[in-house]
Amino acid sequence: MNQLVAVIITLLFLGLIISFTVTHKLKDRYAFLWLVTAIAGVMAAICIPLLNRFALWIGISYMPTFVFLVTIIFILGLLVRQTISLSKYSERMKVLTQEFAVMEKKILELQDQVKGREIN
Question: In the chain, what percentage of residues exceed pLDDT 90?
Answer without folding.
Answer: 42
